[in-house]
Design brief:
- With 484 residues, this protein is α+β, with helices and mostly antiparallel strands.
- 26% of the residues lie in helices and 24% in strands.
- The protein has 2 domains: 244 residues, Aminohydrolase, N-terminal nucleophile (Ntn) domain (Glutamine Phosphoribosylpyrophosphate, subunit 1, domain 1, 4-Layer Sandwich), CATH 3.60.20.10; 178 residues, Rossmann fold (3-Layer(aba) Sandwich), CATH 3.40.50.2020.
- The chain is built from 16 helices and 25 strands.
- The strands form 7 sheets. Strands 4-3-5-2-11-10-12 form a 7-stranded antiparallel sheet. The protein has a 6-stranded antiparallel sheet with strand order 6-7-8-9-13-14, with helices on one face.
- Strand 21, helix 12 and strand 22 form a beta-alpha-beta unit.
- Helix 8 packs across helix 9.
- The longest helix has 15 residues.
- The chain starts with a strand and ends in a 6-residue tail after the last helix.
- The structure holds iron/sulfur cluster.
Length: 484
């Protein structure tokens, strides 16, 4: 599908028997954040036990593998790769023997100076086992001049640029951390009433609504620049950098990635999308018989558009949830059936009707074009499209996999008329960037990254300008337009 892909989801738990089973449940909930590889590392306080593999968590982890994961502490990871190839060697959590003992790491994000650090460490004779940017974290923890684990982790994290939400586990400690700008989300919850001793249970998750699946309650978010350290003695917190930079949370988490049931960056995803739909209706009104959401991602914004405009919501496209990826992989000919197999039109809501199609975002526009073609087979009188985010014009370097610069629809076709003609609709309307947050919203634009819309990258892109990858990366992301 023509959607940006989240790199990862992470889930961890401290202080409960059969901890790996809880992480398994949490990762199942977070599966939408990555399906290429997955894994869990657990400990009973003596050894680290690890199972990582390719595919979805329910496909990879059977009873035998879960039984191997002993202990009352565990961290887990689901991955869609943006840095490093999607092979088993890059599956997480990654583990390593360091000067602070055995360490396991689960990472969501993209460390933009990873190649610089990696090249420096390789020159010093260090050996890397994967191409994942996350492996530099383990090396830095080991290289840290501080003897204490927590100080060593802090030293390591302070050297990183870009985005990271991390779970770092040793035999006796679990550390949760968010990068100083807070690009990626991470929340803390608890099971039961006591915390800080072995009878209490602390959980961490990329999305807080995963806590409901293990009957945990959200305590709070891990804040940008914060480390939360959980040991048998209790919970302590620390700051990665002494002076915290400006917060830049990823607005695309609210627009598309996170589940509507989640609350992240102190914002309800459902309410945010509902309000975006209302704003879209006010900014780009058009007469129609039905609002038709592109399921599932356009659903909540479509409800908002319908509430604001008074035009009834019609589920004119039904999504089939049972189309496996492997089935559509054998050939391009079969792959072309993908949209038809995934979205089933409801003729009663389309034939002879004027419809407004609502989607959360449009990246390359290829799927939107196929959906409109599919709908046109049922002879609507008009098809309009409204998009609940601004045009995507720039690639992301902070852990989200967009298409290359030259593939982005809004770069290939500059006017709204050109974009509408490409997709095959009468009119198209996007949300303006300045409407992502307005003064009545609980959150403010000043705390968010919107670089894929406005090109204002908030953190350095050192990996892409100072080492041998420069030309390759520039060509990959910017093509000829920014090739110099
Ligand atoms: S560039 Fe876009 S997708 Fe990437 S972190 Fe910023 S808002 Fe999120």
């Amino acid at each position: 599908m023509d959607k940006p892909k989240e790199e990862c989801g992470i889930f961890g738990i401290y202080g409960i028997s059969e901890a790996a089973n809880y992480v398994y449940l949490g990762l199942n909930f977070l599966q939408h954040r990555g399906q290429e590889s997955c894994g869990i590392v657990s400990t009973e306080g003596i050894s680290l036990y690890k199972q990582v593999g390719v595919g979805k968590i329910s496909e990879f982890l059977d009873d035998e593998k879960l039984n191997y994961l002993k202990g009352y502490r565990a961290i887990g990871h689901v991955r869609y790769s943006t840095t490093g190839s999607p092979t088993l060697v890059n599956a997480q959590p990654i583990t390593g023997s360091t000067s602070k003992g055995a360490v396991a790491i689960a990472h969501n994000g993209n460390i933009t100076n990873a190649n610089l650090i990696r090249n420096e460490l390789i020159k010093q004779g260090k050996v890397f086992h994967s191409t994942s940017d996350s492996e530099v974290v383990i090396h830095l923890i080991s290289e840290s001049p501080c003897e204490d684990l927590v100080e060593g982790v802090k030293w390591a994290l302070s050297r990183l640029e870009g985005s990271f939400a991390l779970l770092i586990m040793t035999k006796d400690t679990l550390i949760a951390a968010r990068d100083p700008m807070g690009f990626r989300p991470l929340s803390m919850g608890k099971v039961g009433d006591t915390i800080g001793d072995i009878g209490g249970t602390i959980a961490f998750s990329s999305e807080d609504s995963a806590f409901s699946i293990i009957e945990a309650k959200k305590l709070r978010e891990v804040e940008p620049n914060e480390m939360i350290i959980v040991t048998e003695s209790g919970i302590t917190t620390d700051q990665i950098l002494p002076i915290k930079p400006k917060t830049n949370q990823c607005v695309f988490e609210l627009i598309y990635f996170a589940k509507p049931s989640s609350n992240l960056f102190h914002t309800s995803v459902y309410e945010y999308r509902l309000e975006i739909g209302r704003k879209l209706a006010r900014a780009h009104p058009v007469d129609a018989d039905y609002i038709v959401p592109v399921p599932d991602s356009g659903m909540v914004s479509a409800i908002g558009y319908s509430m604001e405009s008074g035009i009834p919501l019609g589920l004119g496209l039904i999504r089939s949830h049972f189309i496996g990826r492997t089935f559509i992989e054998p050939s391009q000919k079969i792959r072309d059936f993908g949209v038809k197999m995934k979205f089933i039109p409801v003729p009663e809501l389309i034939t002879g009707k004027r419809i407004i199609l609502i989607d959360d975002s449009v990246v390359r526009g290829t799927t939107s074009k196929k959906i409109v073609k599919l709908i046109r087979n049922y002879l609507p009188t008009e098809v309009h499209m409204r998009v609940a985010s601004p045009p995507v014009r720039f690639p992301c370097f902070y852990g989200i996999d967009f298409s290359t610069y030259e593939e982005l629809l809004a770069n290939k076709h500059h006017t709204m008329n050109e974009i509408a003609a490409f997709i095959g609709v009468e009119t198209i309307g996007y949300l303006d960037t300045d409407l992502l947050f307005t003064e009545n919203d609980s959150a403010s634009m000043g705390d968010f990254c919107a670089a894929c819309f406005d090109g204002k990258y908030p953190s350095p892109l050192n990996q892409f300008s100072k080492d041998g990858f420069e030309q390759e990366i520039k060509q990959k992301y910017f093509g000829n337009r920014r090739g110099s």
